[in-house]
């Protein structure tokens, strides 16, 4: 378990009710996302369609998250 900073954008921020928080989670992105959903159940549907960045790089759920990492949760954006 390690502390990880999560930053929520757009609909993810609305679902979480915060723009940023620190969670203590397991070693993988999936563990971090599962912890976020546990803390904020409204995130479940949003996380299912989000892109996830770790230190600015797009990653999948199976990527290891080093301690102190910033994980950004970005839902799909509409616009044009």
TrEMBL record:
Pfam family, one: ThiS
Transmembrane regions: none
Top-rank lineage group of the source organism: Bacteria
Protein name, UniProt field: Sulfur carrier protein ThiS
Naturally occurring in which organism (per UniProt): Knoellia aerolata DSM 18566
